[in-house]
Amino acid sequence: MSREALTTCPLCEACCGLRLTVEGGRVTRIRGDREDPMSRGFLCPKGAALAEFQEDPNRLRTPVQRTATGWQPLAWDAALDLAARRLRAVQDDHGRDAVALYRGNPNAHNLGLLLYGAGLVRTLGTRNLYSPTSMDQLPNMLVALRLYGHQVLMPVPDLDRTGYLLMLGANPAVSNGSVMTAPGVMQRLRAIQERGGRIVVVDPRRTETARIADRHLFIRPGRDPLLLAAMLHRIFAQGLERPGRLGAFTDGLDRVRAAVVPFSPQRVAATIGIPAATIEALVEELLAAEAAIVYGRLGTCVQAHGTTTQWLIQLLNLVTGHLDRPGGMLFTSPLIDPLGRLRLAGAGTLGQWTSRVRGLPEFCGELPVAALIDELETPGPGQIRALLTIAGNPVLAMPGGPRLAEALERLDFMVSVDPYINETTRHADLILPPVSPFEREHFDLVFNFLAIRNVAKWSPPVLTPPAGALTDWQILAGLHQRLARSPVERAVAALLRRLGPERLVALGLRVEALGRRAHRDGPLTMRRLQAHPHGLDLGPLESRLPERLRTPNGRIQAAPPDFVAALERLAIEPERPTNPEFALELIGRRDLRSNNSWMHNLPRLMTGAERCTLLVNPDDARRYSLTDGMRARLRSKSGALEVPIRVSDAMMPGVVSLPHGWGHDLEGAALTVAGARPGVNVNGLIDPNWVDPVSGTSVLNGTPVTLEPIDA
Ligand SMILES: Nc1nc2c(c(=O)[nH]1)N[C@H]1C(S)=C(S)[C@@H](COP(=O)(O)OP(=O)(O)OC[C@H]3O[C@@H](n4cnc5c(=O)[nH]c(N)nc54)[C@H](O)[C@@H]3O)O[C@H]1N2
Ligand SMILES: Nc1nc2c(c(=O)[nH]1)N[C@H]1C(S)=C(S)[C@@H](COP(=O)(O)OP(=O)(O)OC[C@H]3O[C@@H](n4cnc5c(=O)[nH]c(N)nc54)[C@H](O)[C@@H]3O)O[C@H]1N2
Ligand code: SF4
Ligand SMILES: [Mo]
Fold first, then answer.
1. Any idea which UniProt keywords this protein has (predicted)?
2. Which atom of ligand 1 is nearest to the CA of 137?
3. According to the 3-state scheme, what is the secondary structure of 203-224?
4. What is the tally of structural domains in the chain?
5. pTM of this structure
6. pLDDT per residue over 671-704, tens digit each?
């Protein structure tokens, strides 16, 4: 007996609709759901590989405990009791901050983890909270907080109606879009060109996205703020600024005008590697376009001046009149709105406290990952002695990963909520594995908010979990209840546990619907969503300012003093001193068949040519006596790795590229497929202390490196 079932892919921000064929309790086929109003049948190789994740023999099905004789299975109650008892003991003996929590990327894609994470965090009450935010979108969020008054008010590019897209530091052809839920994004980009519009990509590599662009400009890593400030300089110098109706509720544009004075296109051209005339042409195109977008993503955040870059991107949209306009950058308001009645997200904070050892600023209750290694290694009151990881693999994801691995060995206790014994969880005393994505429900709380259209979709579980298995939310609820310190806390935890995600979302929809304009077919309840398993299209985004602003005076703050100060420093010293020993700059790279570190154990994603390779421009290859296919030693101040060389004219001269998420051959990791083609961990070369000075975000791109041939 076979049946068809619908669900949503939880792997990346595209949130594609999936159509599964299930035979005898097994998923035998995965296709894109053509009737999903957003993804319209689109599917990438990772979504299709989820059946292999379901069947992966290395995927844990029961909790396991590390013992002197290896990993031993444990019953769920015993496992949750043990985890809670040990975490509690560390907090009782050494204070709350002695337990750290690291929550990885899949948290944002997992309804249960989103709904049940907050309660656990509150109960732990530790300041040692970490996540990849500080290796990712923190600059977007900080700029949203300062300019618009709330950490999540990140405008989204209205791709389907734009006529001009200037894209920096993003490669949606591979990433499928970020802070921009736009499944099938390449088709949407081609549609811009078919409408007569243009796409310009600024990237140190001629990427898969750049290849379809109308123009690609190489830029040296981390020099984007100079380019963007020069564009603003040109606009103000020519008196071409036109913020339109937003001008009436924007403060600080005069301070911006003054701050960009030193950045003439002529002055920055040589440093960034883009001629002044080209910078001026970009300005003209941006102003001439009826509807245009300046969009920058990961590559603009995890660089030397990530916050400055993101700020200038917002300002360019603002002063050219493309912010909050159809076809430009728009603010969303999904059915369950983090700014709505439930106030699911606080406005946000920066620097309310700082990390114990290095004094790095808290952001929205979290410390930057750049603080984590020192907090583990440095003795004294407040030192981290126990760690809980939830869906994270920091040993591969974080700069200084190999040093982190050593520190994890010295912990009093470590517990991980994760399906694998991998590079990070191998250090745990206890691993708590959740059910698979097909065995749980799906509803997007984060990515509906970042989607280029208003959509909503509820996906019930497709498969019945094995008897006794727990979902992520049940694991978190179990820990929460056991760790609760007061009767009230315990009661709240017990109530949440009884409700479950479906009832919580149903409740959320009802509360949020109060006072909101009803959908043309009546209120959007859980029942309505369940009657539309392909998802509901609720129309294009709309202009939402000034109503969405949450700044104290209700106006856009274009010139936050700390941002202006950082730009002024850059005006004095646009270049950091170079070290001739390390004359190349290292950047990262994503691959369509990888998802950060954790899908390399699926055979169908691991076929074909080696992917963990170093791309080197032909001139650099000659300079370092390297040829295609050779192996070489890639060295930074922090470490050295042996890498296979790929010579490629897609690289900017002086820049080399190595992907992250590899290095699977660590002792004790139980990853049969990944371990056979391990690759190397690029984060061993990246200095964990290099951060964006404004936000504490890790600088992942631009590490100075050098190359040496390896004698055969
Ligand atoms: N297939 C696949 N998809 C993914 C992921 C994955 O691992 N694999 N990861 C997901 C995650 S966690 C995220 S955050 C998103 C990220 O999605 P994107 O934001 O699209 O990020 P990347 O694909 O890493 O592209 C970043 C680009 O920035 C460029 N770059 C590097 N340094 C600089 C610089 O200084 N200036 C400029 N202008 N460009 C620079 C790089 O060459 C690269 O092309 O992708 C998500 N989607
Ligand atoms: N050099 C360099 N480093 C980078 C980046 C880069 O571009 N360059 N990118 C950074 C970015 S943007 C990010 S987001 C981070 C990612 O950093 P992390 O989130 O720490 O790393 P992932 O590889 O995504 O690991 C996800 C973990 O979650 C587990 N997992 C998967 N699904 C589930 C689930 O449903 N439930 C549970 N409980 N566990 C699950 C996996 O087994 C894996 O252990 O990496 C960052 N690191
Ligand atoms: S693009 Fe691929 S990984 Fe991302 S949601 Fe769609 S199918 Fe999943
Ligand atoms: Mo990310």
1. 4Fe-4S, Iron, Iron-sulfur, Metal-binding, Oxidoreductase
2. 14
3. CCECCCCHHHCCEEECCCCCCH
4. 4
5. 0.98
6. 999 999 999 999 999 999 999 999 999 999 999 9
